[in-house]
């Protein structure tokens, strides 16, 4: 089987609904902690690296020294043209590893649709057209030199980029699903409060949006994986 490593920053920010699509595509999944496991992680060992989300900033190396090693590993993979997918913080890590700036930006929280660029409409993101995706971020990335912008929202212009076929960086969360979202509600209640949202409101929105998002996100990932071949 092909090997996929999911690099996580918090255990409950995992592959979510994307896990089944990876397994259906013939990948065996193993999880590694960005906080603890980087010293033993070979940047080029896995067929696919997925960098998951998290609540920290790419620019917080002084507080979280592992970030420097994480970006080095990502940069080595990308330089070698190896398949790499980044989600939210993971997409920001990819952008930074490619030399783009990551900085505090407009906070975006909730479910809303993407505006696809012409390139995005021809990419695997076409499966997300008209589908509300999960946004939960306060930082934003610039588009790396040589990469294509694939999607935007009114609040945050840079929602997704592709570097060739092997690298896909996402600002939004396609993977958000239950039961893990209940952990998000517990851990990130302060984010909801600052956005003037309650947990019951967010749970109700998720219960309505997630079934459609799950199907669309799995189609998106399957299409991207097929393009790697």
What does this structure look like?
The protein is α/β, with parallel strands linked by helices. It has one domain (2-228): Class I glutamine amidotransferase (GATase) domain (Rossmann fold, 3-Layer(aba) Sandwich). The chain contains 7 helices and 10 strands. The strands form 2 sheets. An 8-stranded mixed β-sheet has the order 2-1-3-4-10-9-8-6, sandwiched between helices. A hairpin with a 3-residue loop joins strand 9 (160-163) and strand 10 (167-170). Helix 1 packs parallel to helix 7 and helix 2 (66-79) crosses helix 3. The radius of gyration is 16 Å and the shape is globular. The model has no long low-confidence stretch (mean pLDDT 97).
Rg from alpha-carbon coordinates: 16 Å
Helix percentage range:
25-40%
Question: Can you name the CATH architecture?
Answer: 3-Layer(aba) Sandwich
Overall geometry: globular
Q: Class in CATH?
A: Alpha Beta
Structural class: alpha/beta
Uncertain parts: none
Instruction: Count the E strands.
Output: 10
Task: Output the CATH topology.
Answer: Rossmann fold
User: In the CATH hierarchy, what is the superfamily?
Assistant: Class I glutamine amidotransferase (GATase) domain
Biggest sheet strand order reads: 2-1-3-4-10-9-8-6
Quote the beta fraction. Answer: 15-25%
Mean pLDDT over the residues: 97
Biggest sheet architecture: 8 strands, mixed
Tally of individual domains: 1
First CA to last CA: what distance? Answer: 15 Å
Number of helices, where a helix is a run of at least 4 consecutive DSSP H or I residues: 7
Tell me the series of helices and strands, N- to C-terminal. Answer: EHEEHEHEEHEEEEHHH
């Amino acid at each position: 089987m092909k090997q996929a490593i999911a690099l996580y920053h918090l255990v409950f920010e995992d592959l979510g609904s994307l896990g089944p699509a990876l397994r259906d595509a013939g990948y065996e999944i193993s999880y590694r902690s960005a906080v603890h496991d980087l010293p033993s992680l070979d940047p080029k060992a896995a067929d696919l690296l997925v960098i998951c989300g998290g609540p920290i900033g790419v620019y917080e190396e002084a507080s979280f020294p592992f970030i420097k090693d994480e970006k080095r590993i990502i940069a080595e993979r990308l330089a070698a043209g190896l398949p790499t997918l980044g989600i939210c913080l993971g997409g920001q890590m990819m952008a930074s590893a490619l030399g783009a700036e990551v900085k505090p930006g407009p906070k975006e929280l909730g479910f809303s649709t993407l505006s696809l660029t012409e390139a995005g409409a021809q990419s695997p993101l076409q499966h997300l057209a008209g589908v509300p995706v999960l946004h939960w971020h306060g930082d934003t990335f610039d588009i790396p030199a040589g990469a294509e912008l694939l999607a935007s929202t009114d609040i945050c212009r840079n929602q997704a980029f592709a570097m060739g076929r092997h690298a896909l960086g996402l600002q939004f969360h396609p993977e958000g699903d239950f039961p893990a979202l209940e952990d998000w509600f517990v851990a990130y209640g302060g984010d909801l409060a600052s956005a003037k949202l309650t947990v019951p409101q967010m749970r109700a929105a998720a219960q309505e949006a997630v079934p459609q998002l799950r199907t669309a996100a799995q189609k998106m990932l399957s299409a991207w994986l097929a393009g790697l071949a």
